[in-house]
Design a protein that fits this description.
Elements (H helix, E strand, L loop, with lengths): L15 E7 H16 L2 H15 L2 E11 L5 H9 L2 E5 L15 H12 L5 E7 L6 H9 L3 E6 L26 E3 L4
Parallel strand pairs: 1-2, 1-4, 2-3, 4-5, 5-6
């Protein structure tokens, strides 16, 4: 018999994907790779959604979560909404006198991931970013027994050591490595 207030978590239910996108990282990574005319942001987001559905599973509640600074413009906002992405605006942290305001996207995304790992339907986390600052979050996901999928904006955004791609798991059913780059979609 288990004590009703036990901290032990019940086994996770199958198949839901927590899809997390670092918007600025995606936009700047694709801009660097293709330029403004060639990045085809909406086409790549649609292909990302298709890849997640076909290779990993169904997004939690049918949505991805986009983390972006306040300057997210109306064009990008419309792309997100049309593609079932929920926007989470991350305002700049007030700066000390003489320094620049601090970006809060990474911290907010990591906080949200940690919070959502408590959701019993989350079996996979798919992070869309090439930012190695997320390594502590990725390690926390793995420690929680959740499978990790990774999508970088461009293959060349990986460091010589492979960046976060080394943390991508194989899918428990298909056996395929859950890693891809948006510039190859």
């Amino acid at each position: 018999m288990t004590w009703p207030f036990s901290r032990k978590q019940p086994p996770r239910q199958s198949g839901k994907v927590l899809l997390l996108l670092d918007w600025d990282n995606i936009v700047y990574g694709l801009l660097e790779r293709f330029g403004l005319q060639g990045m085809d942001l909406e086409v790549r987001i649609k292909k990302l959604n298709n890849w997640v559905l076909s290779e990993i599973g169904t997004p939690l509640d049918g949505f991805g979560f986009v983390f972006a600074p306040e300057h997210l413009n109306a064009i990008h906002q419309a792309i997100c909404v049309r593609n079932n992405m929920r926007l989470i605006t991350c305002p700049k942290k007030e700066a000390q006198i003489g320094s620049k305001p601090e970006d809060t996207v990474d911290a907010t995304l990591m906080w949200f991931s940690d919070l959502m790992l408590k959701h019993q339907e989350v079996q996979f986390v798919c992070l869309v970013s090439g930012d190695e600052d997320y390594e502590p979050m990725v390690k926390g996901v793995k420690k929680a027994g959740v499978k990790m999928a990774l999508v970088t904006p461009a293959l060349r955004s990986l460091s010589n050591q492979g960046g976060l791609s080394r943390f991508a798991d194989n899918h428990p059913v298909t056996g395929k490595k859950m890693f891809i780059s948006l510039d190859t979609l």
